[in-house]
């Protein structure tokens, strides 16, 4: 080999059993040359430890925060679009409202029970019994097929009308707080038939509109209004004979919700709304009690003859609560200052004992129920499911708005309970059945049905694994030499 010729590369012996060359002496591997990407110029390798070497520019922190917010928004959107979102919102939200309502009924009704010479847990035990019975009705509504719900609408409407007529029979109907809308069954058991009239109107109206839509009759005004509006007027007349203006407002809201879902023209909708408003103002002006309630909107003083006593002390209770409340059971307004602390004004006691955090939690739960109901009504292709889900959502949302608005001093006191929250078995039973109806509709969605079918085997496997672990007896290990 001459000095001008380059030295030939030395061949290293292969590693035994692999066919690969053995590592270089000293254990330093040979660096492979980086192959530049297609369409990208190869950059020269930067030696380590070189002072003043250029580094890649850092991304601004604001961009990272914006990307994180976008990722969170996408994850939330995917979570909202899941097929079981409405199902879990309805089931979880209703149960949370019910449990929190039981706690607040027990806290708000103790002083009222003691003043009446009863046990402190008297009202709580009655509400707990009604909640257990309502749970059975909710489960029944979830398991009932849609055809059975539609067939159940007409008997329920007939029974509700019959019971509302019995309210006006002397000796059977009982007046409570000036409104004669209760039936006594002996002892402490009372029934308010108008609460079941709400459920009957939702089911019957949904079935009526669904059948007319199948026959393509809803484009005509007479088929859209008759017999829905006359039947609702009959229910409103029976309710107003007892003087229950609050329940009449909720039934009117259900009627407007059904007409809106049926696609009523704007002129027709505005005309019916104006007619209902004129009748309502006439009924308010002809009653001194209703006029005094209307005058108490936004009141900060009890006024002459303490006509705004309840409205003002509801505001006092909310103001005393502050951010996190005075503590569960520590309300001062329930000691005889605030009338009806466990029924119509239980939201005020919640604000006093649990503060703004507690009241906002209740509002969020009702908002979740309303969103889930609108989602169920908007995604279904069955007209009966759409009308029934929209009617139930209108019922619960409107009643919550009327009750909370009265407590906040934004609306007149209508005497309607807070759904699933206030004391009262007559209001709790049909409301829980209606929530079960929404849960059944949410389960019937094609995507939700498939997701539940996929989760059932996994849940059964988990339960079987837990059962095997809990039923297995611990075995003592013997020494290795012992037989």
From TrEMBL:
Pathway: Cell wall biogenesis; peptidoglycan biosynthesis. Keywords: Cell cycle, Cell division, Cell membrane, Cell shape, Cell wall biogenesis/degradation, Glycosyltransferase, Membrane, Peptidoglycan synthesis, Transferase, Transmembrane, Transmembrane helix. InterPro entries: Cell_cycle_FtsW-rel_CS (IPR018365), FtsW (IPR013437), FtsW/RodA (IPR001182). The chain crosses the membrane at residues 85-108, 128-144, 151-169, 245-261, 268-284, 354-374, 395-414, 420-442. It is a multi-pass membrane protein. It catalyses: [GlcNAc-(1->4)-Mur2Ac(oyl-L-Ala-gamma-D-Glu-L-Lys-D-Ala-D-Ala)](n)-di-trans,octa-cis-undecaprenyl diphosphate + beta-D-GlcNAc-(1->4)-Mur2Ac(oyl-L-Ala-gamma-D-Glu-L-Lys-D-Ala-D-Ala)-di-trans,octa-cis-undecaprenyl diphosphate = [GlcNAc-(1->4)-Mur2Ac(oyl-L-Ala-gamma-D-Glu-L-Lys-D-Ala-D-Ala)](n+1)-di-trans,octa-cis-undecaprenyl diphosphate + di-trans,octa-cis-undecaprenyl diphosphate + H(+). The keyword Nuclease does not apply. Residues 7-29 have a biased composition (Low complexity). Residues 1-66, 463-483 are annotated as: Disordered. Its EC number is 2.4.99.28. It is found in: Cell membrane. It comes from the Bacteria. Belongs to the SEDS family. FtsW subfamily. Peptidoglycan polymerase that is essential for cell division. This is Probable peptidoglycan glycosyltransferase FtsW. It comes from Streptomyces yatensis. The lineage of its organism: Bacteria, Bacillati, Actinomycetota, Actinomycetes, Kitasatosporales. The gene is ftsW.
């Amino acid at each position: 080999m001459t000095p001008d010729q380059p030295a030939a590369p030395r061949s290293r012996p292969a590693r035994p059993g692999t066919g690969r060359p053995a590592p270089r002496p000293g254990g330093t591997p040979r660096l492979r040359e980086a192959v530049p990407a297609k369409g990208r110029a190869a950059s020269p390798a930067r030696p380590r430890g070189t002072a003043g070497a250029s580094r890649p520019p850092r991304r601004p922190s604001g961009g990272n925060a914006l990307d994180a917010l976008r990722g969170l928004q996408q994850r939330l959107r995917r979570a909202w679009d899941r097929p079981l979102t409405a199902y879990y919102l309805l089931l979880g939200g209703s149960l949370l409202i019910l449990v929190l309502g039981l706690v607040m009924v027990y806290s708000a009704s103790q002083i009222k029970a003691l003043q009446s010479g009863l046990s402190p847990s008297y009202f709580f035990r009655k509400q707990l019994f009604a909640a257990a019975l309502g749970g059975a009705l909710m489960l029944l509504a979830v398991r009932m097929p849609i055809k059975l719900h539609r067939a159940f609408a007409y008997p329920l409407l007939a029974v509700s009308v019959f019971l509302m007529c019995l309210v006006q029979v002397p000796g059977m109907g009982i007046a409570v707080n000036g409104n004669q809308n209760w039936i006594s069954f002996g002892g402490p058991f009372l029934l308010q038939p108008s609460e079941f009239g709400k459920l009957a109107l939702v089911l019957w109206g949904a079935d009526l509109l669904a059948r007319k839509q199948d026959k393509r009759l809803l484009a005509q005004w007479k088929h859209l209004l008759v017999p829905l509006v006359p039947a609702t007027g009959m229910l409103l007349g029976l309710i107003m004979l007892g003087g229950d203006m609050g329940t009449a407002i909720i039934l009117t809201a259900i009627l407007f919700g059904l007409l809106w879902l049926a696609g009523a023209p704007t002129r027709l909708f505005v005309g019916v709304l104006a007619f209902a408003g004129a009748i309502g103002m006439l009924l308010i002006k002809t009653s001194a009690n209703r006029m005094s309630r209307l005058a108490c909107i936004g009141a900060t003083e009890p006024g002459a003859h303490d006509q705004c006593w309840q409205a003002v002390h509801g505001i006092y209770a909310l103001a005393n609560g502050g951010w996190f409340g005075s503590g569960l059971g520590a309300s001062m307004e329930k000691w005889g200052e605030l009338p009806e602390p466990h029924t119509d004004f239980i939201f005020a006691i919640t604000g006093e004992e649990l503060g703004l955090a507690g009241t906002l939690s209740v509002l969020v739960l009702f908002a979740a129920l309303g969103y889930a109901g609108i989602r169920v009504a908007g995604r279904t292709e069955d007209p009966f499911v759409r009308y029934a889900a929209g009617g139930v959502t209108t019922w619960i949302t409107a009643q919550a708005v009327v009750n909370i608005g009265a407590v906040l001093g934004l609306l007149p006191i209508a005497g309607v309970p807070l759904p699933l929250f206030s004391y009262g078995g007559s209001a709790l039973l049909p409301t829980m059945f209606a929530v079960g109806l929404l849960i059944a509709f949410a389960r019937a969605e094609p995507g939700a049905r498939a997701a539940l079918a996929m989760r059932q085997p996994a849940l059964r496997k988990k339960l079987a694994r837990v059962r095997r672990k809990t039923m297995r007896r611990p075995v003592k290990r013997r020494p290795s030499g012992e037989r």
